[in-house]
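Moderator note: this is an archived Q&A kept for reference. The question asked for a predicted structure of one protein chain; the sequence and the answer are reproduced below.
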Amino acid sequence: MSEKRPHVVVVCNKAVRDVYLDPVDLARLEGFASWEWVQAEGGPEFQANADGTARESVRSHLKGADAVVVCHGSPRIDASLLDSATHLRFVGELEGDRFAARFDVEAAWERGITVVDTTNGSSYPVAEWALGLIIISLRNAGEHFRHMIEPKEHTSRHLTRRTRHGFVDGDLWGKTVGLIGCGHIGRRLIQFLKAFQCQIQVHDPYLPREMADAIGFRATSLKHVMSDSDVVVCLAPLTPGTYRMIGAEQLSWLRSDSVFVNVSRGAVVDPDALIERLRVGDIVAGLDVFDPEPIPADSEIKRLPNVFLSPHISTTSSTRQAFFRLMVDELDRHFHGHVTQFEVTSRTLANRRGGPVS
């Protein structure tokens, strides 16, 4: 790090300032940099604020900045703003629903600026709930619970389903688990599954090929993941390339007695096709997400016995501080001459846009 302390500008609304910026992490930041908050209100939750006044306010603050960190309320950091910030060498997005939406990534790259997105701060608790839904679904606990709260006696022998899940074959140990997508959630989930001696297979066209050897899984096609797994977990982000990616044909590949879990986005899966597949009664689903959300009161998905539902609770409130904690880690690495861990790359953009990896 140079003798001059870097200056970091944080652009966000007051709610983010009050909740996300933990005093402990601000103290860590102050240990190696100066910083200031630029308040910006308005705009969609995960998109840029189009207010011109906010944009010009940010422009004036960026003139002496070495880094800018953006979140809800920030205008888009585009080529024009970057040209006004001649000292800028780092831009970071705290929470952009997976993919840095509030700055022009290519324009930053053209100017030699490092681009970081720490939206993955919310990924780690999702992996925990994915594991929970796997275990719950292998036991078909949703049906058991429905029966247990009825005013009559119930045992596991009263299950109405025709599968072996639950009392007979409901353990996770040694099962084959297939992941659709293997980003931060998937990699954390693999760590958990290894404790159960699971065999892991993954479909993710955006992963570097060497990742399979480094983490320990078999890279394969979507069809193999769907048809050759005891448990299938959907972790794919919602992009133009993944909308309704799992339809009737893909769901027909699921073998009898398998489990399907979705903790990513409901719209990745065709909801009508999923209901139709579940009507057969030979699989169990554990769903934290659905399309639409909230689930309509009269949706059949609520009445199916082989489904466990949760209302998109896989993230926790502690993740709000995690976004900024990870960003301070990245700023620390960058300004001390180390390599950042969560840098946006061409693979990131390809994934976001649903296109091929360049």
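Archived answer notes: The longest helix spans residues 319-335.
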